[in-house]
Structures are given as C-alpha cells and as structure tokens.
Specification:
The protein contains 7 helices and 9 strands; from the N terminus they run βαβααββααβαβαβββ. The chain is an alpha/beta fold.
Length: 198
C-alpha cells in the first residue's frame, strides 16, 4: 500500500515534486482514476476540464479516467496505477463516494497496489476519522459516521499554520488518534505501516 498525502498536491511545487518522486513509473505512462470533489457537475465531468488539468501535470489523455457517480460500475476493476482525490469539502466528497459504495472500491484498489494521491480533502478521507475537519469544513450533508478509510493510522490537520495551532494541540491532547500536521508544502508518504514526513 502506498499513499501520497498533502495539503496542496499538484498545486504546490514542493508537494508536486514529492508526488513525482514517489510514482512507480513515469507520469506519462501512469493510468489514473481522478475523482472530482462534490462540486463537480456532470457537464464538467463529461467535458475536457479535468483531462486538461491532468495533462498539465504530465498525464496522457488516453490514460485518464474521470469518475462519474452516475456510472459507478464503469470504474470498478479498472487496470489503473493511481487514484487521485484533490481538495473540496471532506464531508460532502466522502458522502458522494459512500452513496454508491465506491469507498470500498477505492480501499480495494489501494490494498491491491494502486497508489493513492490525496490532497487536503482527499488526504483526510483515507485517515481514521474526519470529525475534526468540522473546524475547517461545513458538514452540510449531516454526516454522523465520521470514519475515514482507516488506511493512515491517525488523523490529519491539513493547511497547518499558526491559525490551526490550537486545534492541532487540542487534538494531540485528546490522545484519541495519532495526529499529523501538514503545511501547504509538506507531504506524508505512507508505505504499508511506515509513515514518512517530507
């Protein structure tokens, strides 16, 4: 299992470099499933918008799949190297994945060797719990089950700076989970049970 987690994924030069360094093959050869956040409309998903964004990062159009929750079955059992979820509202994005039980598919992909790239919302989703994200995101979907995928043994405070210092310290003091903080430039690489802070 390999997770590449950050606050800013490809939008920050440092975290982008960490992604490139931790891919198992050249980015142009990687087959990727990109999962847009909760704001994505069906029109946007079917347009060239996300393909163009991923091509800017170095992916090849023929190797890009854009997840569409109206056609979830098409995205099960793909031959892919990477799954990528970027920023957005953590509660709404996880709710969207749970609707069609695609959260289970993502975990299966990862456990079977697909590398996972998560930025901010996408990073929070793979942790033990996301309840504390309510300090930063609105829980407009009325979520009550705050379990994440549980692939990182702990929780994250993304976009960490002095304004989040007290929240981070409160979470550490509660001792419910291992608490990791990530500035906009930092990343965590998780390889099985090993966590590397970059």
């Amino acid at each position: 299992m390999k997770l590449i987690l950050s606050s800013s994924d490809f939008s920050n030069p440092k975290s982008k470099e960490v992604i490139y360094e931790n891919l198992d093959k050249d980015i142009s050869k990687c087959k990727i499933l990109f999962i847009p956040n909760e704001k994505a409309t069906i029109e946007e998903i079917k347009s060239s918008k996300y393909y163009e964004r991923l091509e800017q990062y170095g992916f090849t159009k023929l190797n890009i799949y854009i997840y569409n929750e109206l056609e979830t079955d098409k995205f099960r059992n793909l031959d892919i190297d990477l799954i990528y979820i970027s920023g957005g509202n953590t509660f709404a994005t996880l709710t969207k994945l749970r609707r069609n039980h695609f959260d289970y598919d993502i975990v299966n992909y990862i456990k079977n060797g697909t590398v996972y790239i998560g930025g901010s919302c996408g990073a929070h989703i793979v942790t033990k719990n996301i309840e504390h994200v309510s300090y930063f995101d609105e829980n407009d979907v009325g979520m009550t089950d705050f379990s994440g995928f549980g692939l990182l043994n702990g929780i994250l405070v993304c976009h960490y700076d002095n304004s989040r210092k007290d929240i981070y310290q409160k979470l550490v003091n509660e001792k419910d989970y291992n608490v990791y903080k990530l500035t906009n430039e930092e990343s965590l690489i998780v390889i099985d049970d090993q966590v590397i802070h970059c």
